[in-house]
Amino acid sequence: MDAPAQADAYATGGAAAISVLTEPAHFGGSPADLTAVRQRVGARVPVLKKDFHIDEIQLVEARALGAAAALLIVRALPPGDLLRLTAYARRIGLETLVEVHSDDELARALDAGADVIGVNSRDLETLEVDPAVPERLVARIPRAMVAVWESGVSAPSDVERAAAFGADAVLVGSALSSSGTPAAAVRALAGVARRDGVRA
Description:
Number of strands: 7
Helix content: 40-55%
Strand order of the largest sheet: 1-2-3-4-5-6-7
Shape: globular
CATH class: Alpha Beta
Low-confidence stretches: none
Oligomer: single chain
Mean pLDDT: 93
Order of helices and strands: HEHHEHEHEHEHEHEHH
Largest sheet: 7 strands, parallel
CATH superfamily: Aldolase class I
Radius of gyration: 16 Å
CATH architecture: Alpha-Beta Barrel
C-alpha cells in the first residue's frame, strides 16, 4: 500500500484523524510510513501512531515522527505502566487513544485519566469481533471523554449503530484499506451524524 496516497484519500474523504501502523514484525508497519503520511496530509488532519507502546521513548518517537497521538492498549500494559505512559504523554503534549476490550480494562483507563477511550470489538488474542463489547462499554464512558468504536465497521449502517450507542467516532481499518475508492468510502462513513446515544 502507498501509505501517503491512501492517507491523502482519507483526508479528502473527510477523515477526522488518520491511524498509521508503525509495528513492523506482525503488522508490516513502519515509522517511515508515519513520517510520509504526516508530510502528505500536513496540518489537515491529526495522525495517530498505532503500535504496541510500552515505554516512554516510543512516545518521544511518536512526537518526533509528527504524530499528534499514540495508541495505548490497556491489555498490553500493567496498571502502573498505563498510568506512567498516560501521564508522560500528557507532559510532552501527545494525545493518547487508550484502547479497552473489557469492563476491567475500561475501569483502568478511567483511573488513568484517559481523555480518549477506544473500545475494540476485536479480541486481540482470538481476533474475533464481538459488537456486543462496544455496545456495553461505550455507554459507560462519561460524556466528557471521547468514545471511539473500534473494529467491525465497514458500512454506514455500522457507523449508525455505533452512534446509537453513543460513540463519538469510529476507527476503521481493513474496510478502507481494501477499498478501490478510499475517499468515497470515507465520505460515506463520515456522513453519519452523531447522536446522543445512551451515554450517561
